[in-house]
Every structure is written in C-alpha cells, then in structure tokens.
Design brief:
4-stranded antiparallel beta sheet, Methylamine Dehydrogenase, Chain H, Immunoglobulin-like
C-alpha cells in the first residue's frame, strides 16, 4: 500500500485533538486522500463511476495527469491513481461532453469529435472496458452535430441528446433513442423533436423522461426549455411549464426528487415571471414549486445538480460548488473555504460517491489553497464528525505496529467501529464488547481511517498510521 504524504499534515493536526473535544467537520472540505497529485492539464467535463469504483474522466485538451501523458479519456482508481490498464490510444479529436457506463462495462462517450483513436466516430463512440473502440456499435453516420448528454435506460436502451437534428440520416430533433447495438429504436417517436439544443436528460422511475435545453418548442408544442416525454417519445401533456424560462435562457442540468418534483438548473434569471438564481423546482405538473426559494443559490450558469439522500441539493457552475437545503435555503453545514482558483474557475460536473464524498471536475487549478488540476474530491454527508456526535475520542498508539485501542470517554455512546482504507472502502468491521477494547489493523502498512458510530446517530473518523 502506498502512503499518501499529503495526509500527514492533516494527521498531525487531528492527533493534536485526541485529548480535546472534537467539533464537527464542515462538509465541502478538501479530501487529501484522493491522490490526484498535480491533476490534469486541460479541462474535465464529465466524471462517471464504474461499478467497481474506478472513475472515468474526460473533457477538453486533457494531455497530462499528474505528470503522465494521457488522452482526453482516462480511467482512475477509486483513490485517484491513474489506471494504466485502460488505454484509449489517441482518444478523441475533439471535446467529450458525457460518459455513460453500460451494465456490461462497455463505455459510451459523446461530444464534438469526429474520430476516436483514428476510428471514424461522429460525436459518439462505444469503448470496450479496456478503452479500445467497440466496432460492434453500429451507429452509421451518427449525429450531424455535437452530443451533450447520454443516459442508459434500465432496459439497456440509450438516450442521446444534443445539438444535432439528424442521427444516421434520420431527422430526430435533438433527441434519439438507440438499441443496445447502436441502431435507432423505432418505437421511440418524437416527431420533429426540439427546434434547438437539448442539453440534459432525466429519467423518471415510470419510464417517462424530462429534457432540458435551449428549445422553446417540442414537436410543435410550446415548451420553454423543459419538456416531459412519455416512454414512446410523445409529449406528456400532463406536464406543462407554461411560460417557463422564456427567451435567452437555457436548462443545462436536471434532477428528480423522490416525491416526483423536478430541479432545473442553468442560465436562469427568471422562471414564469419570478426571479430565480440559476435553479428552480417544479411540481409534477410542471408548475413552479412555491415551497422552494432559490434566492440562496446565487449561481447563474449552473451546470450540474444532485439531490442528496437527506434532501439537500448540491450544485455547481460558474461560481464553484455550493449546497442548499430542500427548501432552497443556504446550508451553513457546507463550506468550500477559499473555493476554486485558476483557469475559468468553473465546475462542470459532480459525481456523488457511495460514501457521501463528492468528486468535482471542471476548469480550475486549485481548491481552498490546494493545487488540484481540474479535479478534486470533497467531503460530504457521512464524512467527518457530525454535530450530534460531538464527544471525546482517543485512538492509541498512533502510529501503531498493528494493534490500537479506541476510547470515546462515554462507554454508552460507542456503538460500532469500522476500519476504512484511504479510498473509503471498509476493510474490517468490529463487534464491540467494551469501550477501549483492543483492535487489530490490516497487515499492510499505510494510513487507515477509524470510523466510530455513536448511539446518537453520529459518525466520527480519525486517521491512524499502520507502520
């Protein structure tokens, strides 16, 4: 196991708290266990996580990763290290806007390119799990203009959206559905489709889908920037945004909520006559949700939005990354410090990881004073110490030759212990018998995280070094 030298200053700071009260760590702090080093030379536009935890990264003019020459599509390990088993050759000859991973591990890539590793691939290509071009994906002449979004349905069919109005010679109007082999799905009929660009797709659990973009009509019906389609591609007339975003604005990010509502983010100043700051929430019928006040977002030029399991809303764009509560109010529990610096300081894409941490990619050089190179991992829900978990805690000896003890100072508070590796994977679970019991660390040397769950529902983590 490779030790991360960047973690030791953090470790020293944490160890100084061992005999003091430990206060809640604010979400959004820099995660030093993601080993991106100097990061990317170039801009990150899309991040996709594979089922095995590895990370596919793509964008524009990517040429180096932590000093190693790379194409514009690369794969990283869950810890941020370059995965050399993935080889995309020369990669694309243009920008990549979106990556989507199929259930069988094959990888869809869409953007502005004409060729991928020397193979003609007009704005869309499918790769094998090792990065080579999949020649069985029969898309013909494909899109006549760039691809912005890709979504794989649960049945394996593929939704493709963008600036195009033809796909393989067929008029489609910004949206097309493909079969798994790349052929156009004849059961999906959108008529004339959108008269302008479609930027984003969101699937409903019942098979319907929402499209957002720059369009003002869809198949002849007025739909200002957002439309909901039935599973067969027809317009769902039960969803009507009315005046919507009007002219001169666009929807670039969509997210559905568990109760059927829809978050729309983008270049928004107003919605249905009301002032908004880049984000609006709609009811299931398309009307504005009066219970959501986005005055706290202050984020014109929003590019991605994620709804957390607790209902809080993460979003990114021209002003970095921020989070609001489910009502749109400012969330004081999320703080990015001095934020993003260098380049255009734009965050283009967010990827929520299973442990609650968040990857952010875009056009930036630094985050909160740390040189990162267009990609950074942030702490988030379930990372750090929650407010309700404020307590005393000791882990000793630290560093350790293999055996440690954990003490909370409150035997009734300690409920569970897990040992995590630097990537956040669980390497051991401990059945507790008493506070201060002896625990064994994994045999490999390196830095681990001791995670303590408390009876109050809180979670605390402290790093420990295994010599």
């Amino acid at each position: 196991m490779v030790r991360s030298s960047t973690l030791f200053p953090v470790l020293a700071a944490v160890l100084s708290l061992l005999h003091h009260r430990i206060h809640a760590q604010v979400d959004g702090t820099f995660d030093p266990t993601f080993v991106q080093g100097t990061g990317f030379a170039g801009d990150v536009y899309t991040i996709a996580r594979q089922a095995d935890g590895k990370l596919l990264i793509a964008g524009d003019e990517l040429s180096l990763y932590n000093g190693t020459q790379v194409p514009a599509v690369v794969r990283l390990g869950a810890d941020g290290a370059l995965d050399t088993s993935f080889d995309a050759g020369e990669g694309p000859d243009g920008r990549v806007h979106r990556i989507a991973v199929q259930a069988d591990g094959r990888i869809l890539v869409g953007g502005t390119f004409f060729n991928f590793d020397g193979v003609p691939s007009r704005r869309l290509v499918r790769l094998m799990p090792n990065g080579s071009v999949d020649g069985t994906f029969a898309i013909g002449t494909a899109a006549n203009d760039w691809v912005d979004d890709l979504v794989i349905q649960p049945d394996g069919r593929i939704l493709v959206a963008g600036h195009f109005d033809q796909f393989n010679g067929v008029n489609v109007g910004g949206i097309v559905r493909l079969m798994a082999d790349g052929s156009i799905d004849p059961s999906f009929n959108t008529g004339t489709g959108a008269e302008a660009e479609v930027y984003a797709i969101a699937l409903r659990t019942d098979g319907r889908m929402v499209l957002g973009g720059y369009f003002s009509s869809f198949n002849g019906l007025t739909r200002n920037k957002v439309v909901q389609l039935n599973a067969n591609g027809s317009v769902d007339t039960s969803f009507d945004p009315g005046v919507g975003g009007g002219s001169g604005v666009s929807i670039r990010a969509l997210a559905t909520t568990p109760d059927g509502k829809l978050l729309c983010g983008g270049d928004l100043f107003s919605w249905a006559g009301a002032t908004v700051n880049g984000l609006v929430r709609l009811n299931a019928d398309g009307s504005p949700d009066a219970g959501f006040d986005a005055s706290a977002t202050a984020q014109y030029g929003l590019l991605d939005v994620i709804v957390q399991s607790d209902g809080h809303i993460l979003f990114c764009g021209s002003q970095g990354v921020d989070r609001v509560t489910s009502t749109g109010a400012d969330d004081p529990g999320f703080d990015t410090g001095s934020g993003f610096f260098g380049g255009l300081q734009v965050v283009v894409d967010l990827e929520m990881l299973p442990d609650g941490r968040v990857l952010a990619g875009g056009q930036f050089d630094a985050y909160d004073g740390h040189a990162v190179g267009s990609i950074v991992r942030l702490t988030n829900a379930d990372v750090g110490v929650r407010d309700e978990a404020v307590t005393s805690m000791r882990v000793w000896p630290n560093p350790s030759s293999g055996t440690i003890r954990v003490n909370t100072g409150d035997p009734g508070a300690l409920m569970s212990i897990r040992i995590l590796d630097p990537v956040g994977r669980v390497v051991d679970r401990v059945q507790l018998r008493n506070d201060g019991m002896e625990l064994r660390l994994p045999s490999d040397p390196g830095t681990y995280m001791v995670e303590v769950g408390t009876s109050a529902g809180g979670v605390m983590r402290l790093p420990v070094v295994r010599e």
